[in-house]
Amino acid sequence: MSTNTGVPATTGQTTQRGDAGALYQLPGHLIRRCHQISVALFFEECAAFDITPQQYAVLRVLAANDGVDQITLAGLAAFNRTTAGEIVERMEGAGLVGRRNSKLDRRMKNIFITETGRRLLADANAAVRRVQERLLTPLARDERARFIEYLARIASENNELSRAPLRPLARGRGRERTSGTA
Amino acid sequence: MSTNTGVPATTGQTTQRGDAGALYQLPGHLIRRCHQISVALFFEECAAFDITPQQYAVLRVLAANDGVDQITLAGLAAFNRTTAGEIVERMEGAGLVGRRNSKLDRRMKNIFITETGRRLLADANAAVRRVQERLLTPLARDERARFIEYLARIASENNELSRAPLRPLARGRGRERTSGTA
DNA sequence: AACTGACGATCAGTATACTGATTAACGGAC
DNA sequence: GTCCGTTAATCAGTATACTGATCGTCAGTT
Q1: Does the residue B8 lie in any domain?
Q2: Does strand D come within 7 Å of the CB of A138?
Q3: For every residue of A94-123, which 3-state class applies, written as one string?
Q4: Which of A59, A139, A170, B121 has a Cα-to-Cα distance from A76 of 20 to 30 A?
Q5: What is the three-class DSSP state of B98?
Q6: How many separate domains does chain B show?
Q7: What average pLDDT does the structure give for chain B?
Q8: DSSP 8-state code for residue A140
Q9: Does A157 contact B3 at a Cβ distance shorter than 8 Å?
Q10: Is residue A48 part of a domain?
Q11: Which residues of B touch A10 (CB under 8 A)?
Q12: A–B: how many Cβ contacts below 8 A?
């Protein structure tokens, strides 16, 4: 357990001139590397589904909040508004979601998950669970819970500092129903 | 302390149909949001320096390992090789680093930090310290140490799973000296 | 000295993550 | 009923993060 694989993880040593060693201890740098690992694991586990972590998040958000507009979707997934539009456009091309002009507000486009999208989401869930397990393998069980709690607290309390904050759905807002199905 | 700012951080509740709530508990999603916050704080604190987190990392790596080639630099900063080339190119344009063809190996280009780069690094260090402090504000002192240790362990033990792993400098490798100075 | 496998840099192509501006539509004040 | 501040979507532009291919070079084998 907890074998160090050779990469300087917690050495406090200073290098010759300058000090790149301390770079490896900065939370910002470590979070970036953990993010890269998380994304790599996602692509490895979800290779069969031809989907990105962000697209998975969109499916997940739509499964619970079908028919929201793009800005609301961006808020629910913590995406930049422009990025959200691009992601949705690619997903529409892949047949995972559909877009319809709102009748209540002609500025809005409501996004709906398709049957294909719903099936893909169901199939991908197990793979995504494996991503989380593999990512947290280096931590003991009680450490994992603490780690997630720390991340959640940092994300939640610093939410407004983000350039793409999480915006929970105000009860009763958005949410245009799909015409026939529902 | 630890006041929840309204964003669902650790609710275990299930939403109507589907379950987007659990998305907000996935380490992968939380790490992504923490990364966005970290980057946002960096840009806010370093606005005066017109620099990105990645460019700061390059300066930091070069200050300790001046004269390495691009691939080695990518390894030391945990960048993709192509991305590293682009970042270095922009930094060359900004006068922060210089590039010279290696005389020992005509495939290589050695990267050197400039005086401008060195001065910018010295000026930016305090701002970067503030970024880390603000990022970790939601955690108590002992929690911060644990959090960093968890991140370091995950990054270190999963290093080879990353598509851009950290590659420490093999002692005595690379490192072409600048001709006149040193 | 020619051959070959490995490697550094680069290119083309795709996806994410933003900023700032623009356009069209909404909605309340007057 | 028109004006005006706000907002959803989009566009142009920039930076990061990759993959897979190519090109020139290197280094060890024969």
Answers
A1: no
A2: no
A3: CCCEEEEECCCCCCCEEEEECHHHHHHHHH
A4: A139
A5: strand
A6: 1
A7: 88
A8: -
A9: yes
A10: yes
A11: 149, 152
A12: 261
Identify whether the C-beta of residue B20 lies closer than 8 Å to the C-beta of residue A64.
Answer: yes
CATH of the domain at A149: 1.10.10.10
The C-alpha angle B51, B57, B58, rounded to 5 degrees, equals 85
One-letter amino acid identity for B19? Answer: D
Does any domain span residue A168? no
- Answer yes or no: do B157 and A23 touch at CB < 8 A: no
With respect to residue B175, please indicate whether it lies within any of the assigned structural domains. no
Instruction: Transcribe B126-140 into DSSP letters.
Output: HHHHHHHHHHTTTS-
Q: How confident is the model at residue B1 (pLDDT cuts 50, 70, 90)?
A: very low
> Cβ(A87)–Cβ(A164) under 8 Å?
no
Q: What is the domain range of residue A144? A: 22-161
Query: Whose C1' is closest to the CA of B90: which nucleotide?
Result: D15
Query: What 3-state DSSP class applies to A40?
Result: helix
Low-confidence ranges of chain A (pLDDT < 50): 1-17, 173-174, 178-182
- The reported pLDDT for the residue numbered B178 is 47
Q: At B170, is the pLDDT very low, low, confident or very high (cuts 50, 70, 90)?
A: confident
Which chain B residues are closer than 8 Å to A4 by Cβ? Answer: 156-157
Q: Kind of pairing, strands A109-113 and B97-101?
A: unpaired
